[in-house]
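To assess whether ligand presence alters the predicted conformation, the chain was also submitted together with NAI. Input:
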Amino acid sequence: MAKKTYKHWKVVKDDEGIAWLHLDIPKSSANTLGEQTLIELDAIISTLAEENPKGVVFLSDKESGFIAGADINEFTTFDSEDAALENIQRAHSIFNNIEKLPCPTIALIHGFCLGGGLELALACKYRIAEQDSAKLGLPEVKLGIHPGFGGSIRSIERMGSFAALDLMLTGRTLDARRAKRTGLVNYAVPERHLLKAARETVLHPPHTAKLPWWETLIRLSFIRPLVANMMRKKVAARAAKEHYPAPYAIIDLWQKYVGNREAYLREEAKSIAHLLLGYTAQNLIRVFKLSETLKSLGKDKSFNVKHIHVIGGGVMGGDIAIWCALQGFDVTIQDQRHETLAAVLKRAAKLYQRKLKDRRKVKNTLDRLMPDIHGYGLTKADVVIEAIFEDVEVKSNLFREIEPKLKRTTIIATNTSSIPLEELAPALKKPDRLVGLHFFNPVAKMPLVEIVVGNKTSKKAKQTAMALTKHIRRLPLPVTSTPGFLVNRILMPYLTEAVTLYEEGVPPALIDKVALKFGMPMGPIELADTVGLDICLKVAENLAQSMPISISKTLQELVNKKQLGKKTGKGFYEFKKGKAVKPSISNSPVSDEDIQNRLIARLLNETIACLREKVAESEDLIDAGIIFGTGFAPFTGGPLHYIEYKGQENLLAMLRQLEQKYGDRFKPDAGWESIQPSQ
Ligand code: NAI
């Protein structure tokens, strides 16, 4: 047995002549492929090419998995496309050299095997995945790029065009079983058999499977454009080309080069170098880093929450309890009504079946979610999450009633969407235990949770709330306890402007279309209908006390008529099978440009007000909150980043013009004068 240790790699040659290449990046919980790691790998592969081992096995010494991708921090360091291309071509040549090794080469995969990590695995002749933990994917498109180390053509060669393009275009991950079924890996085996499977594969290399017959058919020069156009149409329904060029580049590469491997590899490198330096990729990389920043806020070594007690089993409380149990916590859920608790359990079973698939896992998770009409869980809970009716008196009464039953250290987190904590804290003997944990609807989909910090909230309560949020795989954003916190405060002027446009006779479908064109994930009218018009009205009424928001008559009338949007089947739109039916767009009294300017100007103006008042601590946190809380066009990098890009003076001039035409609601916030242009 011979061993050679590098900074990132360790090469162990065993008695059978197999070289085991262990990757273990120092001071990092996950392996990534950065420049230094690749330079070392280059040297290792050159040596192995001369030594001619019996087989080469790549594996990771990290618990978290194989390789999580390329090193994203290096993505923003290139100062030109040429510099990026040179770097990418170097990786190409290393991966080509791996491919050329004459012996069997194997990637032994547990946990995450993503992006560049999967591309390395694809350069091997065989891939063996650990059946329970492996997650494989090419998620580059989410960062505005595509595979860049030869993974485009290599994934197609293993899985066929449709499955590989689906992986690249959606960025989804596959578990080991699906990876095996689609041909991405050769074997899915239990952990205890991994090493044996690798050794067996080296000693008795199997034949690789052939692609299906229709793969030849779709590659024919007259069929390819048809297939490509079909895919373009599908992509266009989700992402506009001018905002998200990467998926279109993936399809273009396939259409032009799928029959010519060498050209495919060459052009993939050029295309990714071009995308990487572009506006969208740089901003999406920023958004990814913002999510990492939010996650890091939730780090807390002393975090010790095991039992969560949720009060209120309605839309929010029910979903919060369901989600927390899914993430491994013991949860008791209390409501006044038995029927509500029964409905929660039914919803839970449905979600767990969808997410976990395995009957045993579903049962174990359901066992952690305990209906508790009498509130027995209160005495044991480490955290109580309150999600009852949005009313100061009702919530205060509940606090008075439950506090004597709690442990001294128990934290109370309220899910209020609009009540400042200072109005609720007086009901408690220990007001420092109160913090806001503002979830968004639907809990299982919305990534952000606002951590509302009142003037009495203790550091411990704040830190526990942030850590809990991270533990349930959500992003914590600390905000001040001011009306609307951050997200609703930003959204409300934008939504009320949309309703004003509607009242001026602009077709609602046009308002939504213009917002989508700007890059919003959903138009404001459909968003209001989805959130529920009663909730919108309540938040608007609350905010109207502190900001220039007019309460729309239309909104009040719809709420009076119980046309509350999606949940009642009718609001601004009618809903069929949960989908808004949008009437065709007739003439509009306002131009598209004006619609967009008015919607976005109000949102940006309120963002500046939040920055001035420090509702969240920094510009980055404000951008992060608005992107993850409202879905604000991610390819812009967030509203403050967008302001910087467009030029503060230009946007200020636009606001002034709108103020002259439409009045005070467009009055530029004082904060515009004091923002520092970045260097
Ligand atoms: P909901 O009306 O669906 O549920 C409230 C539940 O609380 C009901 O099941 C009711 O039986 C129960 N309840 C009321 N008083 C109780 C008491 N004293 N003891 C035990 N159970 C009691 O309301 P929803 O929409 O779930 O809202 C709950 C809270 O979450 C509110 O503060 C709301 O502002 C906030 N919120 C709502 C969002 C939404 O989109 N619906 C989003 C974010 C926050």
